[in-house]
């Protein structure tokens, strides 16, 4: 759930923070104000949308809450969610449903991932004339299932509903083109796959959906461009983090988003193959590139995931996440483009040794 910040992002964060701390006067801070707007332009270009449609948030959860709080929902309305959304995203809708009286319909995960068509059919059945909003996750945090976001957004649009795509596990990993996906809302964080600073993220608002979104926070200090004028009114912001965010995306652009996606998926495939070859291991993640991203989740036989994850880090400095619960519990690995093939093999060998 956290990637290391790349050096350009870290350097920018340190430089701007030091520059403000050395002289916090309005005269000096003015030079960093443009950096905030420039960051918005860089983020927008990365997602292939207009700068006036992008809002710099603190993280994906805040962006999701801007939508769940900002879209007017009342008794008789319905929100259709993916049951496998991040718990915080679904909890926000369920909490507000208690307050405002609308209903929430959950589309459960289909295990194993059967392909895009099955999910599209499931949402087609779930959406009704009362549906005001469809909220999905682009790539699930459980097993890295890749959902047909573009097709589900189109389906919602055809049915007269708004669409929200949580891009926490795809933004910075996949080569995302929001002008093609056409969601009404898209959210993401800098601290995950973009390898940017912490506590900064993005909310994209499609021009056709702007009139449907009320501001969640009202402050004297609004933004200067587009949706940030009304929805970015969060008072004093951390310009250093915003500029660092832009530097992280500029770094990715220099490498090439398509290359980052291809390498990350190739590393994940290598890890999946190595882990699946270990006796007793069950691979939860699909091997079909059309159904997965770069998350690899496995069940390590009868071994306790939490203990095994702790041992992997303590003995081999292999970092992974232990997942509990009834839905595909086990170990979750998230290789990224900066990892080496040797590191992938070392992780798999460490699992094999501890399970022997």
Quick overview:
This protein is of the alpha/beta class. It is 44% helix and 14% strand.
Oligomeric grouping of the chains: single chain
DSSP helix count? 12
- Which fold name corresponds to the CATH topology of the largest domain? Aspartate Aminotransferase, domain 2
Rg result:
21 Å
Instruction: Provide the domain count.
Output: 2
User: Gap between N and C termini, in Å?
Assistant: 28 Å
Q: What would CATH call the class of the largest domain?
A: Alpha Beta
As residue ranges, the low-confidence spans are none
SS strand fraction: 5-15%
Specify the CATH architecture of the largest domain: 3-Layer(aba) Sandwich
Cross-sheet strand order for the largest sheet? 1-7-6-5-4-2-3
Q: Please, what is the CATH homologous superfamily of the largest domain? A: Type I PLP-dependent aspartate aminotransferase-like (Major domain)
Structural class: alpha/beta
User: Which outline best applies?
Assistant: globular
Characterization of this structure:
This protein has 356 residues and is of the alpha/beta class. The chain has helices at 7-22, 26-47, 60-70, 87-100, 116-126, 149-158, 178-181, 228-231, 239-255, 257-276, 305-316, 341-355, and strands spanning 54-57, 78-82, 103-107, 131-137, 162-166, 185-189, 201-205, 281-283, 296-300, 321-323, 330-333. It folds into two domains: 7-254, Type I PLP-dependent aspartate aminotransferase-like (Major domain) (Aspartate Aminotransferase, domain 2, 3-Layer(aba) Sandwich); 257-355, Aspartate Aminotransferase, domain 1. The protein has twelve helices and eleven strands. A seven-stranded mixed β-sheet has the order 1-7-6-5-4-2-3, with helices on both faces.
């Amino acid at each position: 759930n956290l990637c290391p910040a790349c050096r350009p992002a870290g350097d920018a964060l340190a430089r701007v923070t030091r520059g403000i701390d050395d002289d916090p006067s309005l005269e000096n801070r003015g030079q960093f104000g443009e950096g905030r707007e420039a960051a918005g332009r860089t983020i927008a270009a990365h997602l292939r949308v207009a700068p006036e449609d992008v809002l710099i948030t603190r993280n994906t959860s805040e962006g999701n809450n801007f939508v769940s709080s900002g879209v007017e929902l009342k008794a008789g309305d319905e929100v259709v969610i993916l049951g496998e959304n991040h718990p915080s995203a679904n909890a926000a809708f369920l909490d507000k449903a208690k307050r405002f009286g609308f209903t929430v319909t959950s589309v459960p995960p289909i295990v194993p991932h059967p392909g895009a068509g099955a999910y599209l059919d499931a949402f087609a059945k779930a959406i009704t004339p009362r549906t005001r909003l469809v909220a999905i996750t682009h790539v699930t945090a459980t097993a890295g299932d890749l959902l047909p976001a573009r097709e589900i957004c189109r389906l919602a649009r055809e049915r007269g509903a708004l669409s929200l795509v949580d891009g926490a596990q795809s933004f910075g990993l996949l080569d995302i083109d929001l002008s093609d996906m056409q969601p009404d809302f898209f959210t993401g964080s800098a601290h995950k796959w973009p390898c940017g600073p912490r506590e900064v993220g993005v909310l994209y608002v499609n021009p056709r959906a702007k009139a449907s979104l009320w501001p969640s926070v009202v402050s004297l200090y609004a933004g200067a461009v587009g949706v940030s004028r009304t929805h970015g009114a969060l008072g004093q912001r951390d310009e250093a983090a915003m500029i660092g965010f832009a530097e992280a995306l500029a770094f990715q652009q220099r490498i090439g988003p398509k290359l980052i996606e291809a390498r990350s998926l190739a590393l994940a495939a290598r890890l999946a193959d190595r882990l699946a070859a270990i006796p007793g291991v069950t691979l939860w993640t699909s091997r079909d590139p059309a159904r997965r991203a770069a998350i690899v989740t496995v069940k390590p036989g009868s071994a306790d995931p939490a203990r095994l994850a702790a041992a992997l880090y303590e003995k081999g400095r292999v970092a992974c996440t232990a997942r509990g619960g009834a839905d595909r519990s086990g170990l979750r690995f998230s290789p990224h483009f900066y990892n080496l093939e040797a590191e992938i093999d070392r992780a798999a060998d460490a699992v094999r040794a501890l399970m022997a």
